[in-house]
Amino acid sequence: MKKVYSTEILANAWNIKNVLEQHDIEAVIKNENLFSVSGEVPFLECLPQIWVKPLDFVRAKQIIADLGSSFEEVGPDWVCASCGEPNLSNYAVCWSCESSHENAHENDLANQ
Ligand SMILES: [Zn+2]
What we know:
This protein folds into 2 domains: 2-71, UreE, C-terminal domain (Alpha-Beta Plaits, 2-Layer Sandwich), CATH 3.30.70; 78-111, no CATH class. Helix content is 37%, strand content 15%. It is built from 4 helices and 5 strands; from the N terminus they run βαβαβαββα. The protein has helices at residues 10-22, 32-38, 57-66, 101-111, and strands spanning 2-6, 27-30, 49-52, 78-79, 86-87. Strands 1-3-2 form a 3-stranded antiparallel sheet, covered by helices on one side. Strands 4-5 form a two-stranded antiparallel ribbon. A hairpin with a 6-residue loop joins β4 and β5 (86-87). It is elongated. The protein starts with a strand and ends with a helix. The mean pLDDT is 77. It binds zinc ion. Residues 80, 82-83, 85, 94, 96-97, 99 line the site of zinc ion.
């Protein structure tokens, strides 16, 4: 199994698990019990996590990305160098103007 997603919000984890199962992807939530018992903000490694089979990993990532900005995966987003639109980190090309991520990457580094 591979971890495909983690979230501070257990409801998000359940939502994603449901969506993945609608796509015939077997998903397991880890740490849900730790989270609900503690009642405190959990350590990062105790956050609810979605795990899927390695064969389903790429497809699951894409499905989660398609859920939209409220379910952003962990990782830096990037801003298109051509049109300035924000893109999810796993988009290879801008959703708006289809410029490649490579152009934007140099821009990101220059801003740091
Ligand atoms: Zn663009």
